[in-house]
């Protein structure tokens, strides 16, 4: 099961949405470790605008789950101090689009404490934030900011694509001795979304990855998962786009191997190499804007490590280099049609 | 003179009890009886009105008191009282009532799925309206999403606002922006950011520009109680204080951020108005539901700005009577009937009372006017909807439009992407 | 002359360091346009810690060149307001390493004003900041942050490599109707530096690009320059690394075509394509950390547009994915030895 | 009651003169005669000492006055005066004198090219020393680069500091950091950031953690006058005020940032101490060159923190007597002999005077001690240099080291890069 640690064979499972599995991961870790504390804007009494921390204050007390002032830099800055003290803060930024005020504390502080103090001080903290569009949130509730973290040395960057992974990865992130940026694709909080916005919403209860083990388990950071095995082309993707890629493979009938990266830094280059060397073709998909997106790094790595195996140029399907528009959301979103086109095109080469 | 023990620093743990974390909590939660006894309210007319060229330190107390003009009968009292012309009052009442009718209609439209989102100003209407009435053409407001009053006070066409909310063919922003994040340059209404607090410092920068050029325009900045915790509240205050920018820095304390009350932003331990003191900015705390107080304080601040006397910081005390937005459900975190117990009342009722007292308004005309405005909004909304709504556009917007206005001139990579799109 | 506008054939030239040419660009533009204002930490009376704005306050008055509070977010935020008013602020961030507090104002505001207001409000401002290492500045005076801007839609990103370009590009940046991030490689402020730190410092007065025309001229943004023509391999680089690349070409005897990109966004893809299609090989060099650096985007673009012309994998020579260390500066810096190795290696394929 | 003109908002430009921008300017520039008449100084002993559980608002005035204890003869006066044990005073004087000797030596080493950079605390030595003397083991300081006094007051080995400055074999940071950006966890000295102000909020977070755990440790945060303009000054103050964190928030107002004077940070229009009021944090303004005042105010603040009464904000008024750093030349922007005219004098001279008055010190012993400390620093520096200096390392540091401690476990991409490096 994707290398997950500690799941007893007979673990009971439960149907959970991604919101519920994230909440459950918090609950499990707060129960196991008194040092885990949770805070963020509206994250205490109310339990977060997406309800990912609902009930934690009631269960663990106000001193372990509380509301924070609307100050993303303050939230992360205070968390850095707490982490240095020995706590394990797991904080929420309400939308990734609002993480910029916290960027300095993440880049200049959290990411660097260990290195600059030569290991004397460390910063085990998790910064959670919802990313991505598809909810008519306009340009300030839709951004995908992963590449702004993958360029930062000293932080790990994680993005799950389903409730099962979300819980296991979040637990691993909380246990990690270093700062982890945990990006939650909000469009799939309540159900997998393959880009067919015109079709009825499917809930996680209808999806196998919506069956989530109770209790503790961790999915190691740095390990990709193969969401679909295939022989013709490798698709590298993560988050919501995993589901779009799967739909496109189905719809085009192209036998794509869809790799769900799960962790962007550290990256599972081994899995990528193995797949691309097998298929000889690679399409990269992300929702973030194209230029200097994480797809650029993936493309560079693939051609550096698999150059002589490539039968066609590596392609990127991404959000356009414009702000995420409100009304034109579905023109912007790299849906199954665009992904399908890329798959078809790469097979023509 | 105290006697000091040389090994004070050796004090052992046992000398002190364990520490514990204080997390502010509102007085009441769902199910509780509303209680606003913590809101410090000065008697009507009790606060002195200082000269315009006063220093922050001279009027420290005004940051802790509350400027109030209308007594419980709607009668103006004290130094801040102005006998406003009937015309201004009518204008103000009309604007406030139209906002309320507009909000109601737009809430309904959102619930009907005609737009993605909406935010009301219910209970706070007096503030933006009162301030706009002291401003001049050419001045620039840097509002948040709850200052539709700045537009209504100018009789700005509601149609232009509605089409933005519907993201339809006539939306001046071409569907780019979330509803209510208006941009109307001609009306002195700066493009609203979705990011909180960023525009406070921009308002200061804009005002500095006017001073740099030797112009006469002033700016107004707007922020909510919750957002004062953000960085750019501070940078705005620092720059305004240092360069004495001609700007009015407004802080609308409506007691709530989304689900967190003002204590989480620091309102438990001091007044927000007192934040201004440390920046050397003369600071007022004002009853934001008292139109006469709003007008008088705004005018005092505008006069200071225009006479190059620098910024003024004003905390408007009011109450967010409605949900934060259409995505919010306040019954989860506060008593349902809170607003009914809000000690500063309803700004529309209070202005109505004053006007009736002055003899040029009546309950009947009020009811009539209300019906008229609700009608106006219904008719205008229907017209606006005829240009399309978010999910039922009249004409399909060309996806190519999103590439426009990223830059003044479209660079090659955007042209390529637009081509890839095949449009 | 690299497409520069408006240089009269008989323009007088003057020997200038990069500091002087940057100062001169300010001077020319402040003289031509009353709306140009300059401010930043220590940038007023003192003229900046690198002296790039020296004398401007004395010449143009305190209201047009002034000291700012130590608040990078305030500096850029105020500049956004001024730009919206109609001024042309040209502000200095003391070191790029300190730009993070301003990142929100750049990304969420300056870059988006035009788009979100559908052209109603615009934001013509320039944010200058010294980048790069090589001065024993440790991890907080050495960073190269370009990739954090190239991923942001709505800003242009420029990095000159010599006094001549610096002046022409800065003038173009100030004239540009949109926000421009102007990155100044501080190691070459006073002279070209080819990475041979053990050799004596060469001043700009000994370099042809240190002869700078007096008065107004602009180098259009978005146009690369060919720093060295060659047939065997294309080197894509910018800033200090241009000089390192030239030295490496000389030292290895490999006939490299060194392209000085000058502007990263918008990028001169045409020039890149033409060169790579000619040479069939490409090495990318930057000082910034590797993962998700701008080299990744360049690599992706080269392989997307020149795949069938490539005879070997595109290589990247970059700073390592660690903070810039203080004492080990020269181990970190991608000097001529490392660049030379890459050139040699790519020629072996 | 004023009479209001209904078309006030139509006022034309002509009613007001053109605006202009105010840019603060220091009183004196190079060549001028030093003038500190703008520094507001309260008479010695004039300020009352409040109870520990006071509220910010109750002691507003203390943010504008100045706590001073020693009169011009070195005699303690007023409520803040403590009769400190000889031992503490000796310790303090020794620490301050050793800092001065250390700084002198390290400046010289930098000029000789043995290190890349140095920053002195000249003229500010009393502040960090006085505060450290009221702290306990386990407390954590979040200092800037000018608080070497926190280490000296603990008799921390200067060798450990010197080898960091030389980035040599024995540097506990392995050469990673710029000189003086120390990290000494055991001494309660947090790893210093090169980025200003970021650690103010971290100190608050650390203190909150202690409260969350029910521990008894407190934190101290440090910031300079110039850096108060930064964002994280604000976030630190907001969080400290809201959660009543057990932290002492120190602000060292040494009148200068690099070349810009405190007016550019807002010091012209108010005291920095008054910034604390708006956050509901009891705030003091204290003579930072008066060791007895430093000790007493620090102790008052520490006691508040330990008794869970929350944060205290203290503006220490002092003067940066030296250049900002070895990269700076203050003669370009201020009178050369400024410090000689600084009205609060030299903290070492003042403490010396007090100790002589108390009868356990003399001019002779002072001169002797100074010589002794300078000797100590010379000898230790020579020894430190024997382990190598920046450009003359004893053993070449392995470049592979830079890959260590990026993460706890080295991820594959760093391993690959280390391999590429061939080490
Ligand atoms: C930087 C940023 N952080 C968070 C948010 C999400 N958010 C939108 S409104 C809001 C509450 C604002 O409260 P307040 O400032 O009191 O304004 P009010 O809504 O009461 O007028 C929050 C947290 C945001 N828009 N921007
Ligand atoms: C975020 C950031 N911006 C700018 C700098 C550059 N810088 C270093 S020290 C300094 C002046 C600080 O002045 P102040 O806070 O008064 O401290 P002092 O040096 O006087 O102790 C500046 C601007 C920095 N280190 N970090
Ligand atoms: Mg509010
Ligand atoms: Mg200072």
Write out key terms for the chains shown.
heterotetramer, A: 349 residues, alpha/beta, Rossmann fold, 7-stranded mixed beta sheet, 5-stranded mixed beta sheet, 12 helices, globular, B: 423 residues, 5-stranded parallel beta sheet, two-stranded antiparallel ribbon, 32% helix, 8% strand, disordered N terminus, binds thiamine diphosphate, binds magnesium ion
3D structure, described in words:
The complex is a heterotetramer, with two copies of chain A (349 residues) and two copies of chain B (423 residues). Chain A is α/β, with parallel strands linked by helices and 349 residues long. In chain A, 35% of the residues lie in helices and 18% in strands. Chain A has helices at residues 18-32, 56-60, 72-85, 100-110, 113-116, 146-150, 163-175, 240-252, 269-279, 294-306, 329-332, 336-348, and strands at 13-15, 36-40, 65-67, 88-92, 126-131, 156-158, 180-185, 211-213, 225-228, 233-237, 256-260, 263-265, 282-289, 315-319. In chain A, the strands form three sheets. Chain A has a seven-stranded mixed beta sheet, with helices on both faces. In chain A, strand 13 (282-289), helix 10 (294-306) and strand 14 form a beta-alpha-beta unit. In chain A, helix 8 crosses helix 12 and helix 9 crosses helix 10. The two termini of chain A are 35 Å apart. Chain B folds into two domains: 56-392, Thiamin diphosphate (ThDP)-binding fold, Pyr/PP domains (Rossmann fold); 395-423, no CATH class. Helices cover 32% and strands 8% of the residues of chain B. Chain B contains ten helices and nine strands. In chain B, the strands form two sheets. Chain B has a five-stranded parallel beta sheet with strand order 3-4-5-7-6, sandwiched between helices. In chain B, strands 8-9 form a two-stranded antiparallel ribbon. In chain B, helix 2 runs parallel beside helix 7 and helix 5 runs parallel beside helix 6. Chain B is globular. The termini of chain B are far apart. Residues 1-11 of chain B have low confidence and may be disordered. Chains in contact: A-B, A-C, A-D, B-C, B-D, C-D. The interface between B and D is large, with 78 and 78 residues. Strand 1 (2-3) of chain B pairs parallel with strand 2 (82-83) of chain D, so a sheet runs across the interface. Bound molecules: thiamine diphosphate (2 copies) and magnesium ion (2 copies). One thiamine diphosphate sits between chains B (144, 146, 194-196, 224-227, 252, 254, 256-258, 320, 324) and A (41, 70, 94, 98).
């Amino acid at each position: 099961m994707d290398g997950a640690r500690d799941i007893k064979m007979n673990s009971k499972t439960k149907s959970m949405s991604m919101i519920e599995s994230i909440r459950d991961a918090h609950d499990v870790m707060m129960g196991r470790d008194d040092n885990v504390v949770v805070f963020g804007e509206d994250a205490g009494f109310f339990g977060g605008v997406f309800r990912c921390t609902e009930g934690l204050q009631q269960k663990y007390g106000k001193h372990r789950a509380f509301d924070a002032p609307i100050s993303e830099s303050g939230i992360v800055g205070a968390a850095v101090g707490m982490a240095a003290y020995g706590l394990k803060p797991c904080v929420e930024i309400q939308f990734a689009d609002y993480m910029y005020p916290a960027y300095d504390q993440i880049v200049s502080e959290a990411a660097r404490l260990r290195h600059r103090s030569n290991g004397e001080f460390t910063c085990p903290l998790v910064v959670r934030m919802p990313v991505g569009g598809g909810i008519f949130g306009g340009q300030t509730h839709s951004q995908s900011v992963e590449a702004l973290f993958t360029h930062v040395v000293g932080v790990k960057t994680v993005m799950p694509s389903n409730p099962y992974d979300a819980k296991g990865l979040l637990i691993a992130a909380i246990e990690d001795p270093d700062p982890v940026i945990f990006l939650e694709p909000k469009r799939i909080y309540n159900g997998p979304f393959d880009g067919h916005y015109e079709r009825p919403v499917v809930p996680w209860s209808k999806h196998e990855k919506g069956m989530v083990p109770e209790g503790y388990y961790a999915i190691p950071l740095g390990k990709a998962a193969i969401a679909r095995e295939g022989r013709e082309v490798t698709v590298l993707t993560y988050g919501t786009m995993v589901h779009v890629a799967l739909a496109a493979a189905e719809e085009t009938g192209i036998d794509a191997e869809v790799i769900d990266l799960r962790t962007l830094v550290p990256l599972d280059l081994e899995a990528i190499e193995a797949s691309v060397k097998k298929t000889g073709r690679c399409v990269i998909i992300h929702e973030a804007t194209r230029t200097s997106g994480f797809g650029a790094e993936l493309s560079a790595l693939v051609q550096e490590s698999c150059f002589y195996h490539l039968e066609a140029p590596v392609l990127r399907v991404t959000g356009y280099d414009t702000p995420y528009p409100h009304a034109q959301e579905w023109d912007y979103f790299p849906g199954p049609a665009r992904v399908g086109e890329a798959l078809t095109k790469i097979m023509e080469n | 003179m105290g006697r000091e023990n040389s090994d004070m620093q050796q004090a052992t743990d046992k000398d002190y009890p364990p520490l514990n974390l204080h997390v502010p909590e509102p007085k009441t939660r769902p199910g509780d009886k509303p209680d606003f006894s913590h809101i410090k309210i000065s008697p009507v007319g009790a606060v002195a009105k200082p000269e315009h060229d006063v220093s922050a330190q001279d009027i420290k107390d005004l940051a802790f008191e509350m400027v109030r003009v209308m007594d419980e009968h709607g009668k103006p009292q004290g130094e801040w009282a102005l006998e406003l012309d009937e015309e201004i009052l009518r204008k103000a009442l009309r604007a406030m009532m139209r906002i309320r009718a507009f909000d109601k209609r737009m809430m309904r439209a959102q619930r009907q799925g005609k737009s993605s989102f909406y935010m009301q100003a219910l209970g706070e209407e007096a503030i933006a309206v009162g301030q706009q009435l002291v401003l001049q053409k050419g001045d620039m407001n840097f509002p948040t999403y709850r200052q539709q009053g700045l537009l209504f006070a100018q009789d700005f066409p509601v149609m232009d606002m509605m089409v933005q909310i519907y993201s339809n063919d006539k939306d001046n922003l071409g569907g780019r922006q979330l509803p209510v994040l208006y941009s109307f340059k001609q009306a002195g209404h700066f493009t609203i950011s979705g990011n909180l607090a960023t525009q406070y410092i921009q308002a200061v920068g804009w005002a500095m520009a006017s001073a740099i050029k030797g112009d006469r325009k002033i700016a107004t900045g707007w922020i909510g109680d919750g957002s004062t915790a953000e960085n750019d509240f501070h940078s705005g205050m620092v720059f305004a204080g240092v360069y004495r920018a001609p700007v009015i820095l407004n802080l609308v304390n409506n007691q709530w951020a989304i689900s967190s009350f003002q204590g989480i932003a620091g309102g438990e331990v001091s007044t927000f108005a007192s934040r201004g003191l440390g920046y050397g900015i003369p600071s007022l705390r004002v009853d934001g539901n008292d139109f006469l107080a709003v007008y008088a304080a705004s005018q005092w601040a505008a006069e200071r700005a225009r006479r190059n006397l620098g910024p003024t910081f004003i905390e408007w005390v009011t109450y967010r009577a409605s949900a934060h937005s259409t995505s919010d459900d306040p019954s989860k975190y506060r008593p349902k009937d809170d607003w009914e117990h809000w000690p500063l009342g309803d700004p529309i009722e209070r202005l109505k009372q004053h006007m009736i007292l002055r003899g040029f308004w009546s309950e009947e005309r009020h009811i009539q006017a209300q019906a008229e405005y609700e009608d106006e909004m219904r008719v205008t909304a229907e017209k606006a909807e005829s240009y399309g709504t978010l999910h039922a556009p009249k004409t399909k917007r060309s996806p190519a439009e999103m590439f426009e206005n990223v830059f003044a001139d479209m660079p090659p990579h955007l042209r390529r992407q637009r081509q890839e799109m095949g449009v």
